Amino acid sequence: MLYVVPIKLSEAKAFVKRWHRHHLPSVASVFNVACCDDKGVIRGVAMVGRPVARGYDDAFTLEITRVATDGARNGCSILYGAARRVAFNLGYRRLVTY
What we know:
With about 100 residues, the chain is of the alpha+beta class.
């Protein structure tokens, strides 16, 4: 079973650099979340920041800029859900990803 924890930017960048198939880590983020297994091993990371597209950068929208997992079952879904909950709890009204 996986559970969600906060993660520092430097740790998120290192995980994305190791596990993302074709992108480097994002330069900055508003917040980052990770999913861990029962032993506390990080199995996935989501980096959330300001939207890249200027049209979406309205102070109420965030963008999931990177998601990377080591193949953990349902890891991406858990991270997307956690990112949405955190963003909305911080007062943002929309969360986009591509």
